[in-house]
Amino acid sequence: MSFLHALGIFAAGTAAGAINVIVGSGTLITFPTLIAFGYPPVVANVSNTIGLVPGSVAGAVGYRRELSGQGKRVRTLSCATIVGAAAGATLLLTLPASAFKAIVPAFIALALLMIIVQPRLAAALRRHHGHARERIGPATMFGVLACGVYAGYFGAAQGILMLAILGLSFDDDLQRLNATKNVLAGLANFLAGVIFAFVAHVDWAVVALIVPGAIIGGVLGARYGRRLPPTPLRALIVAVGIVAIVRLV
């Protein structure tokens, strides 16, 4: 591995760590980078998943103020995320990668549509059900479970999907929902990473380069991303999602 090769992976990890914390979809930077450097898709995917875990932890710590008062919500949704991520990681190791990646653009497009219409839907739900929407129903649990499966399998744009699900489920500030998303996405990546570490072929040199970059990016993303008001944050989510669709198609 050349110095420029290593520098490119480190830089991709830094950018991915920041984007994961602010929006999600950091995998769409690191995964194509590893593919461009000649790594096999599954090796690139599992190495990338493990490498980005510390960045998710750094981001969650950076959003600890926004996590205040969300303990019960996070604990409940974490159960669905963990089960889903384990199932997704198992699917990655047993099914051809093309089987799921073929519908990834459709998932991202659906998530973007949900993000765009979420304010109107939330207002409609408030009028129908009242202001507070904190009870976690079956639809929310199923959505988080499905997102966990997707995260364990491939994970690109899982943050956008999760934000869309949370935005339709809870009447809360977008930055607080983003904090919840960071914890759930970090859990999904961690569990999938543990499974991959034991049963998949991991390029640990790649992991060693992505980890410090992702931590730096996670800290920077939490520092500046949490200052964004809802409208610019929503616009950034949509912009990243559109880029994700273009790159995957």
Give the SSE layout:
Blueprint: H1 3-22, H2 27-36, H3 41-62, H4 71-94, H5 97-101, H6 104-129, H7 138-153, H8 158-169, H9 174-199, H10 204-225, H11 230-248
What does the model show?
The protein starts with a helix and ends with a helix. The chain has one domain (3-248). The chain contains eleven helices and no strands. The mean pLDDT is 82. Helices cover 81% and strands 0% of the residues. It is globular, with a radius of gyration of 17 Å. It has helices at residues 3-22, 27-36, 41-62, 71-94, 97-101, 104-129, 138-153, 158-169, 174-199, 204-225, 230-248. α1 (3-22) crosses α3. The chain has 249 residues and is mainly alpha-helical.
Which structural traits does this protein have?
81% helix, mainly alpha, 249 residues, 11 helices
Principal-axes shape call = globular
Helical proportion, percent range: over 70%
Distance between the termini: 29 Å
Number of helices: 11
| Structural class by helix and strand composition | mainly alpha
Query: Which consecutive residue ranges, at least 5 long each, have pLDDT under 50?
Result: none
How much of the residues is beta strand, in percent?
under 5%
Measured on Cα atoms, how large is the radius of gyration?
17 Å
Structurally, the number of domains stands at 1
Main sheet? Answer: none
- Total count of strands: 0
Average pLDDT score: 82
Q: Order of helices and strands, N to C?
A: HHHHHHHHHHH
